[in-house]
Write a structure and sequence with these properties.
With 130 residues, this protein is mainly alpha-helical. It contains 5 helices and 2 strands. The chain has a two-stranded parallel ribbon.
Length: 130
């Protein structure tokens, strides 16, 4: 536990256990899986046909994180990462071109549109892979 950022931190042993556990499940490429995680450089390319990076305006993110009671330091680091596009950059460095999709997620309408796009993508994946 990182007390300063009030978050859990995964060490190398934990990463290895996570990857071993997921490999047993995700190794079956005849099935589709959705994995929700906040980093991508940990996972092998072969596991993913789509990587979605949700982006938000810094004003919206500031309000969201403050409403969750996050510390000033944690809010600041998250805002800095968003401003610099760190998650999107890491995703683009980790996966092939075309796999990474950036979606705006500022309001409920954005979230609804994102869900519709992802459901449509899943439907197309099922048609192509079944």
């Amino acid at each position: 536990m990182d007390e300063e950022f009030d978050t859990f931190v995964m060490n190398e042993e934990g990463e290895d256990r996570l990857l071993d556990s997921l490999e047993a499940t995700l190794g079956d490429t005849s099935m589709g899986f959705i994995l929700d995680h906040h980093t991508c450089d940990l996972f092998p390319k072969r596991w993913f046909d789509l990587v979605v990076v949700l982006r938000s305006s810094t004003e919206e993110m500031f309000d969201r994180l403050n409403s969750r009671g996050y510390s000033e330091k944690k809010v600041g680091e998250n805002l800095e990462c968003e401003i610099m596009g760190i998650c999107l950059e890491e995703a683009r460095e980790s996966y092939d071109e075309g796999v990474v999709q950036e979606l705006k997620s500022d309001c409920v309408e954005d979230m609804d549109n994102n869900c519709e796009r992802i459901v449509q993508w899943i439907g197309n994946w099922i048609k192509d892979n079944r």
